[in-house]
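Sync notes, pocket subgroup
Present: LS, DG
LS reminded everyone that the earlier model was apo-only. Rerun requested with uridine-diphosphate-N-acetylglucosamine included. Inputs:
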Amino acid sequence: MREICGLILAAGEGTRMRSSLAKVLHPLGGTPMILWVAELCRRLPLKRTLIVVGYQADRVRAALDGEPVEFVHQAEQRGTAHAVLQAQSALSGFEGDLLVLSGDVPLLSAQTANGLLEAHRRAGAQATFMSTRMPDPTGYGRVIRGPQGAFLRIVEEAEATPEERRIAEINAGIYCFACPLLFQALGAVGASAVKGEHYLPEVVSIFRDRGLKVQAVPAPDPHEVLGVNTRIELAQAYGVLRRRVLRELMADGVTVLDPEATHVAPTARIGRDTVLYPGVFVEGRTVIGEGCTLYPNCRVKDAQVGNRVTILDGCVVLESEVGDECTLGPYAHLRPATRLRRKVKIGNFVETKKSVIGEGSKVPHLTYVGDASVGEGVNIGAGTITCNYDGVSKHQTAIEDGAFVGTNTSLVAPVRVGKGAIVAAGSTITQDVPPDAIAFGRAQQVNKPARAAEWRRRAKQAAGAGGKKPDGGEDDKE
Ligand code: UD1
Ligand code: CA
């Protein structure tokens, strides 16, 4: 069987994106477009995969770090035919077929690409390209056929007549060519009349003119071969991808209340009987278990979430672990390296960072827990702050099993609250609290019996005289 190599074209700037970032680096579902195509190549029976880079070549190479690909440089972007030509020396002596893909056609499936390769082999063709009918073919190369429907050539939008532009059948930019015939034909591609570029689709008609076997293979679904040249097409491609991911999740038992308003990255995993409310974003390599509920407007990125977890409205969970049966929010913020064991409750307006919180512990309201290790069965009252930063370094707070921290407590790290200890509300804790102790870290309250009326009378007097009100200070001292 003939060997197959892959070649991905990714050297262009993508001027129609109007961006300082090379087009193929724009993320689609959180992954740069070019990586989608490189990962597709991994799943195809290719001997080697080459990528033509040029514009922002270093950044494109960096985005493909670790991928089994070789790079070919196109110093000046003089068109897609010129781009393929740059691979000639890397492929010298190669006598198999070359699968040419575009770095800006990111949704192509392995099944469809394999279909093209099989059709090419079955027909014994020297050139096979994928075509489809686009509802709006604007921007694509159109497929020109003779009266009997035989393929004649592909004409680019910029070079097409108004009648040609009315043709809905387009070139998807995915080809298979026999080598070294391809490189012989590339030498014959002239500069186009309008743009002066060397167009790869020209090669298909050159093959035809040379009596070689050429065929167009229809794409099973035009959505798969959407080309991304503009931000509008980027959004369309994202819509296709998003719906594809959600359909798979729903088929696997995830409830998505409103698929039009739910975003799950293709790199995320979600278990069955989990329910996603509208406005949920599940990003990166997040894994969510079974039977969870994510209420509206939550964002979960690169997190590990266990089973039967409830995430109430408006939470942000980043690079964290959430154990089984935890409850978060509403409006909780789990910053990176938060690790919640089982049945932890993190309530309203609580922020956590780089902290472990033990099984069954509760942090129900208005609290910051950073650089802390919190044991099991701990209760942390509203308004508690771990003062972890002194302006120079970060310090650790330890709160041991069964401890109770009263509301509005400042725990000035480094500090430890021992097992079973109690911290009185309103304390500023600067020293370790031994196990089972009660710590009062607050100023003593002084009550002055029956002095309220007297105080009010003097306050009114002072206001009448235009003076300031008594502060209950100096002359009030006992
Ligand atoms: C191309 C096809 C068009 C097809 C469409 C499908 C040509 C001339 N036209 O048009 O028939 O309908 O794709 O999506 O091929 N590139 C380089 N070097 C260059 C120029 C481009 O590497 O000198 C790369 C780009 O980075 C891009 C790919 O080739 O990834 C396609 O180039 P683009 O300019 O997007 O071609 P289209 O106008 O979309
Ligand atoms: Ca394109």
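DG: The longest helix spans residues 231-251.
LS: Confidence is low (pLDDT under 50) at residues 474-478.
Action: DG to write up.
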